[in-house]
């Protein structure tokens, strides 16, 4: 191993390329001036804006109600709106555009939006904010692909219905295929359907890169107009990611800004080649490359499943949950996905480290057998060495990896945590370690975990076993999810859906 690394992590001075995490956004009012200005404008500007926005939205909702009067849900999905209903929809779109003007959004348009005849499909990226919908209303209300639950949102559900969206129902296992079929039918239909607008990333990011595009917009094999969106503001109050400010905080801070700049660029229509028509993934990647070049940002192969994993990790309160996406990518670079070394360490007695709560970089590299790629290993180590002291708790790393791999059940995850925190390796878990294990897998507070420990340790032995805990949990209705086949049951029961910032916002 290189002597520079052997000298110790705190002495290392080498350049490692930072790994992008597009699902994290930091927003704080750092200066006294910003805090005072925000406080004043909260009292003066926000009430006026909220009142006007509510009036405009209610007016738009009333017009949309009139426009949809006499149209059944089936008719809405079988043929496009015509005549006065179509004209009224354009008026409603312009009215909702006024909402953004009232909110202080200063819109700049670059390029020209094309007609449906030129491009039946429109893809917009990067998707980072609820403000992105400004492009939709500017275009007159194209159809969007949205979750079925969107239709029930007060006021906005009616407005979205007026665009004749294509809904995806997550409780219907065939919904995705039906949606793709509907996209193809509309995109290739001779009827006067609106253009279809899709956010191909499928989730919100911080605009630092373009993540993987879903294939839905590219299955029809028709010309597509790529649309790029930017927010060139000094204070970014619009970016809404999986880890960061809640929607309510972002809305409040946006309304306290005198102006918020938004730039929408309509790129030239992209016409697929024969190879791209046959291969939607190739088509999607090539369009993404064009958009990334226009935006001046890289492409990174993150996916919606990464978001789903991170959200579950946060809901469980796994250590370093917000960094697990980065950890996954670095593990892939290091080839750890193939070696399953973490599983072997769990199975070994004591993980072959003297004190797993204080592991040095050299020990980390040796344990994971990473001598061949020291710089990437250093990136991985530094994620867990937040204080830059040259030491990490190896159990944080192992628990994050083992709990999110291979769709483990909740009970399996708890078992892993209890084994990791069994410092004496005899199956007897002390109170402190029991609390750590439960806090980092089922999201309990220390007080809650300690209360459970006392109830499990009825004979006051000072320790519990995994079997003791299982016997206790089986009698508690609030722990029934531990015995489900996957972690999804608890997740869906608690949160209702997979959304950024658990319990904070709805996408």
UniProtKB/TrEMBL annotation:
GO terms for molecular function: calcium ion binding; lysophosphatidic acid acyltransferase activity; O-acyltransferase activity. One of its GO terms (cellular component) is endoplasmic reticulum. One of its GO terms (biological process) is phospholipid biosynthetic process. The lineage of its organism: Eukaryota, Metazoa, Ecdysozoa, Arthropoda, Hexapoda. Residues 409-444 form the EF-hand domain. Keywords: Acyltransferase, Lipid biosynthesis, Lipid metabolism, Membrane, Phospholipid biosynthesis, Phospholipid metabolism, Transferase, Transmembrane, Transmembrane helix. PROSITE patterns: EF_HAND_2. InterPro entries: EF-hand-dom_pair, EF_hand_dom, LPCAT1-like, Plipid/glycerol_acylTrfase. Its main location: membrane. Pathway: Phospholipid metabolism; Lipid metabolism; phospholipid metabolism. The chain crosses the membrane at residues 50-71. Belongs to the 1-acyl-sn-glycerol-3-phosphate acyltransferase family. It is found in: Membrane. Pfam families: Acyltransferase, EF-hand_7. SMART domains: PlsC. It comes from the Eukaryota. This is Lysophosphatidylcholine acyltransferase isoform X1.
């Amino acid at each position: 191993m290189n002597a520079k690394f052997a000298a110790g992590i705190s002495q290392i001075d080498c350049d490692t390329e930072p790994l992008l995490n597009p699902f994290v956004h930091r927003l704080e009012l750092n200066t006294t001036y910003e805090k005072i200005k925000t406080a004043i404008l909260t009292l003066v500007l926000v009430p006026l804006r909220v009142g006007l926005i509510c009036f405009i939205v209610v007016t738009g909702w009333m017009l949309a109600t009139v426009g949809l009067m006499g149209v059944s849900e089936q008719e809405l999905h079988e043929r496009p709106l015509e005549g006065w209903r179509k004209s009224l929809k354009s008026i409603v779109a312009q009215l909702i555009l006024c909402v953004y003007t009232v909110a202080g959004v200063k819109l700049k348009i670059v390029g020209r939006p094309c007609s449906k005849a030129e491009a039946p499909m429109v893809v917009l990226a990067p998707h980072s904010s609820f403000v992105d919908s400004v492009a939709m209303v500017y275009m007159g209300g194209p159809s969007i692909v949205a979750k079925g639950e969107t239709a029930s949102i007060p006021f906005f559900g009616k407005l979205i219905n007026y665009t004749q969206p294509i809904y995806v129902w997550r409780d219907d296992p065939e919904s995705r295929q039906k949606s793709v079929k509907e996209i193809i039918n509309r995109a290739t239909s001779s009827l006067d359907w609106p253009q279809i607008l899709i956010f191909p990333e499928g989730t919100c990011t911080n605009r630092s890169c373009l993540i993987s595009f879903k294939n839905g917009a590219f299955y029809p094999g028709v010309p597509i107009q790529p649309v790029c969106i930017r927010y060139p503001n000094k204070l970014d109050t619009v970016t809404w990611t999986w880890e960061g400010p809640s929607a309510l905080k972002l809305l409040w801070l946006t309304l306290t800004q005198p102006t918020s700049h938004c730039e929408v660029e309509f790129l030239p229509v992209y016409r697929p080649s024969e190879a791209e028509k046959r291969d939607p993934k190739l088509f999607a990647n090539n369009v993404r490359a064009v958009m990334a070049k226009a935006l001046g940002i890289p492409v990174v192969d993150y996916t919606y499943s990464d978001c789903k994993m991170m959200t579950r990790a946060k809901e469980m309160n796994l250590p370093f949950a917000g960094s697990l996406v980065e950890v996954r990518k670095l593990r892939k670079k290091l080839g750890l996905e193939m070696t399953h070394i973490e599983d072997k360490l769990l199975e070994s007695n004591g993980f072959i480290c003297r004190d797993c709560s204080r592991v040095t970089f050299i020990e980390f590299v040796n344990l994971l057998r990473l001598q061949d790629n020291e710089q990437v290993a250093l990136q991985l180590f530094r994620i867990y060495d937040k204080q830059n002291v040259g030491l990490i708790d190896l159990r944080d790393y192992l628990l994050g990896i083992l709990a999110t791999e291979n769709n483990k059940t909740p009970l399996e995850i708890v078992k892993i945590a209890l084994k990791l925190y069994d410092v004496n390796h005899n199956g007897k878990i002390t109170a402190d370690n029991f609390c750590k294990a439960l806090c980092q897998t089922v999201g309990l507070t220390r007080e809650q975990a300690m209360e459970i420990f006392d109830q499990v340790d009825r004979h006051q032995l000072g320790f519990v076993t995994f079997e003791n805990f299982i016997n206790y949990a089986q009698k508690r209705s609030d722990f029934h999810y531990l015995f489900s086949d996957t972690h999804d049951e608890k997740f869906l029961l608690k949160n209702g859906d997979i959304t950024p910032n658990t319990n904070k916002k709805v996408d």
